[in-house]
Amino acid sequence: MPHRLKIAPSMLSADFARLADSVKLCEDNGADILHLDIMDGHFVPNITFGALVVGAIRTLTELPLDCHLMITDPDKYIPDFAEAGADLISVHVETGFHLHRTLSQIKSLNKIAGIALNPATPLEYAFEAAEYCDFILLMSVNPGFGGQRFIPTFIRRCEKLREYLDKNGLNHVEIQVDGGISAKNIAEVYAAGANIIVAGSGLFGGDFKQNIEAMRSAVKQ
Ligand code: DX5
Ligand code: ZN
After folding, report:
1. Using an 8 Å Cβ cutoff, are 211 and 197 in contact?
2. Is residue 32 among the annotated active site residues?
3. From ligand 1's centre to the CA of 12, what distance in Å?
4. Do 203 and 184 contact (CB within 8 A), yes or no?
């Protein structure tokens, strides 16, 4: 059974001077999850924000907060993000020496646990860790910046991963896609098996309401 489509605006493309307004825009237009990009300037060539800002966003909304940790030492900071009010936490497999330990840590804090893979990281990493995950984030751009172009190899990787999950009794594990998604390609990524759809510039670039409606209506569920 295909999973329900969930749209997760990436706050990286929001107006940071009016964060509360951007959060409200997401709420008013039926966003399912808020995606928060945590970058450390080591794992990715950019720095964003940390647990303090996640905590501030927590006070603004009841929407689930999804912390995408693009940081080299996730184990050290997971408790801070959990305490700040994250609901979903994903860590990059490229950073982890002890991935199962990291995922258990997230789960022991009663959070929804995910792993993230860069576009060129072998899918086998996901296969090995899938049974310990609630969701798997397949990047469709190299992480670090919003507004990059979708890398088409995502489609075949996503189909392969969905097939693996479904064949191995792991149908409940959801696939998240992140990078370069808009109304133009959302149908294709959903059909390939991704149902948690992150979008930054595709939503905040132009009219948010029109963009999110166009994305939803492009997907046949
Ligand atoms: C990229 C981030 C994404 C980014 C997506 O490193 O993980 O969440 O904000 O932005 P768009 O949708 O503009 O590619
Ligand atoms: Zn992200």
Report:
1. no
2. no
3. 7
4. no
DSSP label at 216? Answer: H
Beta strands 6-9; 65-70: pairing state: unpaired
Stretch (H or E) spanning 10? none
pLDDT band at 11 (very low <50, low <70, confident <90, very high): very high
What residue owns the CA closest to ligand 1's atom 1? 143
pLDDT, one tens digit per residue, over 30-63 is 999 999 999 999 999 999 999 999 999 999 999 9
For ligand 1, atom 7: residue with the closest CA: 143
162, 192 contact by CB (below 8 A)? yes
Distance 1 CA to ligand 2 centre (A): 26
Phi-psi region of 206 (alpha: psi -120 to 50; beta: other; left: phi over 0): left
| Consecutive H or E run containing 99 | helix 99-108
| Residue 80 bears catalytic tag | no
How far apart, in whole angstroms, are the C-alpha atoms of residue 30 and residue 17? 22
